[in-house]
TrEMBL record:
It comes from Pseudobacteroides cellulosolvens ATCC 35603 = DSM 2933. This is Putative competence-damage inducible protein. The lineage of its organism: Bacteria, Bacillati, Bacillota, Clostridia, Eubacteriales. InterPro entries: CinA (IPR050101), CinA-like_C (IPR036653), CinA_C (IPR008136), CinA_KH (IPR041424), Competence-induced_CinA (IPR008135), MoaB/Mog-like_dom_sf (IPR036425), MoaB/Mog_dom (IPR001453). It comes from the Bacteria. HAMAP family: CinA_B.
Length: 417
């Protein structure tokens, strides 16, 4: 098969350089271009300066076949992307009547008067292919110049993303000599090094499909990518690799569809009609927040109690004062009582609790920062696991939530078919 077409993403906007906003457009574009045989080789960000923009474009066209630009298509004086690109290619800016009509209709719909400078957005380089904007006023365009392609898209993600997905991807799909199909395996409960050791022969022997591991936020993702003629062929190439990885890693692979842990766990709870409640200390409601992101979870999630102080653990949740005095709030004994009592109080099939030291203060010699207990109770028993986590407060709290969700997931897989 042919090699990847090389692409560069060129984002225009001083606000990006100053860190006022994140460049989520580049992330979205980079994730989708490989599907149509285009590899992103470079990311560039430049401010609203015509001279520097021209320099960046000249460099980009020397090292890439496709340049996708975002930003600088607005109505104000500092929005100079089209003007700079038109000058670079020696093309006039001409009025695109349909775009002007759409801009006028946009303002009429909002019962607002269109100012004269908004007409600027309807002027586009002659000979370009117009990309309609159904979520804003600035149309985009595609310029073909010999074997090079330059695409201009507006900066706001809510406008850029649908224009890219609906038009740009279709444009390249017709030109692609091959397709890229990727599947993402999400893994929890095994470190990146230990996981790699189990599948290193698969990684070393890869050709098509390829296997790329990366770690993030306490878990590991494997991207399995096949180069193919069509989606069906890609899936056929990928399936045996996924099957072999799952065979080796077992239930540490919690998703083969790039779902996050709360999605997988929430769907298992709903599918099996398992009611659940939480008692949270060090996570302060974060576990509840994550699970309630899942549509339909109200059918099984009854509620939670955030019990930070010992007084609330005892007075509201019913944890024994003797347990708190003898073992402390951060202990397996307290975690177990929290899980058992929240299940009883909320009359749910399962009760889950978390208690620990997220830092930066509160640690002792015997109970360091990162010591966390997670407990799960059903009507017959209660299990508790001790975690020794590391990192800052946010990392510890996030990893506590992941471990709690994984504990629930594994319990369901073991006890429900």
């Amino acid at each position: 098969m042919d090699e990847f077409i090389k692409a560069e993403i060129l984002a225009v906007g001083t606000e990006l350089l100053m860190g006022q906003i994140a460049n989520t457009n580049a992330q979205h574009i980079s994730a989708r271009l490989p599907e149509v045989g285009i590899g992103v080789y470079y990311h560039t960000v430049v401010g609203d300066n015509p001279s520097r923009l021209k320099d960046c474009l000249e460099l980009a066209l020397k090292r890439a076949d496709v340049v996708i630009m975002t930003g600088g298509l607005g109505p104000t004086k500092d929005d100079l992307t089209k003007e700079t690109i038109a000058e670079f290619f020696g093309r006039k800016l001409v009025l695109h009547q349909e775009s002007l009509q759409k801009i006028e209709a946009f303002f009429n719909k909002l019962n607002r008067t269109m100012t004269e400078n908004n007409k600027k957005q309807a002027f586009l380089p002659e000979g370009s292919l117009i990309i309609e904007n159904n979520n804003g006023t600035a149309p985009g365009c595609i310029i073909e110049d010999g074997k090079k392609v330059v695409i201009m898209l507006p900066g706001p993600p809510k406008e850029m993303k649908p224009m890219f997905d609906e038009t740009v991807i279709g444009y390249f799909s017709k030109k692609a000599s091959f397709k890229i199909v990727s599947r993402f395996l999400r893994i929890f409960g095994i470190g990146e090094s230990a996981m790699e050791e189990k599948i290193i022969d698969l990684i070393d022997g890869q050709s098509n499909p390829t296997i790329a591991p990366y770690a993030k936020d306490g878990e590991v993702t494997l991207r399995i990518t096949a180069r193919c003629n069509n989606g069906r062929e890609g899936e056929e190439l990928i399936k045996p690799v996924i099957d072999e990885i799952r065979n080796r890693l077992g239930d540490a692979v919690y998703s083969i569809d790039n779902e996050n842990l709360e999605e997988v766990t929430g769907k298992l709870l709903i599918k099996n009609n398992i009611s659940i409640s939480f008692a949270e200390s060090c996570t302060g409601g974060l576990l509840s927040s994550r699970i309630t992101e899942i549509p339909g979870i109200s059918a099984v999630f009854s509620g939670s109690m955030v019990t930070y102080s010992n007084e609330i653990k005892a007075g509201c949740l019913g944890v024994s004062e003797d347990t708190l005095n003898t073992h402390g709030a951060v202990s397996s004994s307290t975690a177990k009582e929290m899980a058992v009592n929240i299940r009883k109080q909320m009359n749910t099939k399962l009760g889950v609790s978390v208690t620990g030291i997220a830092g930066p203060g509160g640690a002792t010699e015997n109970k360091p920062i990162g010591l966390v207990y997670v407990a799960l109770a059903d009507e017959n028993d209660v299990a508790c696991t001790e975690l020794n986590l590391w990192g800052d407060r946010n990392r510890i709290r996030n990893n506590t939530v992941l471990n709690a969700l994984d504990m629930i997931r594994r319990y369901i897989l073991k006890n429900y078919k």
